[in-house]
């Protein structure tokens, strides 16, 4: 059990987010060995899902049949995933040299519900790597109970990048953080600092600090240009247009001078991939391209999801979507007449937009007025020509208890840890080590029970996780 002052002093000495704070707890979040084993299965399933998604996208692009023994051509899949993307980015995602290249870090967002875990998103450019590694160190008392333990997360993060340049003994790695993602720059600096102490050449840079030199990518170290071998881009692809040096990154990759991770493949950052998993026309594809245990696991985990495509339908046709009043929908606007119980649904933008992260585009139908719900539907349909939205079944997190420090005066002496009720989101971090997913840490977000959408808000507690018998 950690004292309030110990935690506060550690975080004060090493800020991990810019202008962010959260509640503190004396204990890491407890996970049973069975839960940890399930998380490890989920990590393997997430990579397999990405591999199948790549196959789906590339076959759709080429107009090839999706199934072995039955005809199924789906050019609309690529059209969905390419919609609103710059032509150059689409071309790079389809480049044959990209085949089989996947993100080095995958982080599913898992809600703890009465029926087990619900996988609501799968992030390939996740924040919180440095924070979780720091908390793992802070809460690790040497007994090995912390999931990932002290420095495993830092080491696995490094190895997931270093393996992109297998011939280099000590590659120079640049963690490039955009202004849009500046909130996370302190944790990336901390990661780079820890790795530098181990003799690794890892630097946290702003995009404007990199420059081209002879086809390579460089940055200045005490006035001397240093060649970058690997770029970890800590920004999502919608942000490319704001980055003045983005063309240098692409040029260095095309010249074979630098590896870029996560790969610049837009379809790996779209939330509508989960809606494709549940699409009735694609069920046979997923069952053919995923192992049986993986398909069953993902079918249990991923809430029913639909793409909000407002394309006109012929007379008598209905949408692939939920029902309202027991009837199928012929127009997405009919969702606006759903009862509050029927509105246990979430609308969110699929990706490639500044509102696609941090729950900024999320509308929960059962937690807003009918007018706000109808406005959310209308906004999604107006965006559809360039930015598709996803409709997802809402699975309510169960209430659980955990001790949290509360200090009415803000002084350490007055802080008392008391059991409180709340709802939980788990973010396990999986690192891709040459095709094998390693669970290196889990960040728990414990929110007050009145919060329906769980994210890293000020009144939530952020914790590492430990294994209990």
Outline the structure in words.
This protein is of the alpha+beta class and 469 residues long. The chain has 3 domains: 104 residues, no CATH class; 224 residues, Rossmann fold (3-Layer(aba) Sandwich); 90 residues. The chain is 30% helix and 24% strand. The protein has 12 helices and 21 strands. Strands 2, 3, 17, 18, 19 and 20 form a 6-stranded antiparallel β-sheet that branches. Helix 2 packs across helix 3. The longest helix has 30 residues. The radius of gyration is 23 Å and the shape is globular. The two termini are 17 Å apart.
CATH fold title of the largest domain: Rossmann fold
Number of helices: 12
Which regions contain 5 or more consecutive residues with pLDDT less than 50?
A: none
In which range does the helix fraction lie? Answer: 25-40%
Number of domain modules: 3
Task: Work out the number of β strands.
Answer: 21
CATH architecture of the largest domain: 3-Layer(aba) Sandwich
CATH level 1 class label of the largest domain: Alpha Beta
* Euclidean distance between termini CA atoms: 17 Å
Layout of helices and strands:
Layout: H1 4-13, E1 29-32, H2 33-62, H3 75-82, H4 87-93, E2 105-113, E3 116-123, H5 129-139, H6 149-162, E4 173-177, H7 185-197, E5 202-205, E6 211-213, E7 216-221, E8 224-227, E9 230-234, H8 246-254, E10 259-261, H9 272-278, H10 283-289, H11 292-301, E11 305-307, E12 323-324, E13 327-328, E14 345-349, E15 363-364, H12 370-383, E16 389-393, E17 400-406, E18 416-433, E19 436-447, E20 461-463, E21 465-468
Parallel strand pairs: 1-21, 4-5, 4-9, 9-10
Antiparallel strand pairs: 2-3, 2-18, 6-7, 7-8, 11-16, 12-13, 14-15, 14-16, 17-18, 18-19, 19-20
Helix pairs in contact: 2-3, 2-11, 5-6, 5-7
